[in-house]
Amino acid sequence: MTYIPFARKYRPQFFGEVVGQEPAVRTLKNAVKTGRVAHAYIFAGPRGVGKTTVARILAKALNCLNPQGEEPCGRCENCKAIAKGNFPDLIEIDAASNRGIDDIRQLKETVSYAPIKGKYKVYIIDEAHMLTKEAFNALLKTLEEPPPRTVFILCTTELDKIIPTIQSRCQRIIFRKLPEEKIVSQLKKICQKEGITYEEGALRLIAAASEGCMRDAASILDQASIYCDNNITESAVREFLGIVSRDRVELFLQRLIEGDTEYCLKELKGWKMKVTT
User: Fold this and answer.
1) Among 41, 75, 268, 55, which Cα is nearest to 260's?
2) Distance separating alpha carbons of residues 107 and 110, to the nearest angstrom
3) For the chain, what percent of residues have pLDDT higher than 70?
């Protein structure tokens, strides 16, 4: 069986599984519940905090055949197809490689067609800030007056590069970096499910290294579990990440004050080798 990395294996499939994005999730759940889903959204925020994941969950919620309130059931034909990435009414576009006016013209030619299997056609444009100015201008009219049952979601890490005329036609949902405590809590859940033993300090180091990005934290945990043979210790994670302990830094400063240049040069050489490797 093909190995599935933690970042993919534990990607949220329901609104209730999304970590650290309560305002965004609450807004979208209420929109689904009340039937007030906007025709266009901008999901903006740092990398790896759930923008595209939440966009897919929204697509599920809108097209689920057996919705559980505002949550998708996750079991119907449409939910399974979206999870597998082969649902005909969910169109994902990578704007980093499809950024020109011709690509948007092609999109405009297909957008007028009604949904094939679902209630809504959902277009997710990832890295939307990469679109050219001409492509943005070509998209304006479509975003302003889209066909019925069509939702556009523009995901971006650089909101300031989305031209104002596009922003004014979309509802903005802001995604934040995750607090360290929430990342640590999620890492503990992954460890428990995978049968990985861990030290609390090790998970905190991983959370700090991820800089608020849950996807990065899951990826680092994945690598660390392999490196540590499923027994993740703080010392091993420091070694794995090339992090120097506080005690070692304090000892270095003390030796530096004492004029022990030989020791200090040896330590600096060792740190440099860890960073370059």
Assistant:
1) 268
2) 5
3) 94
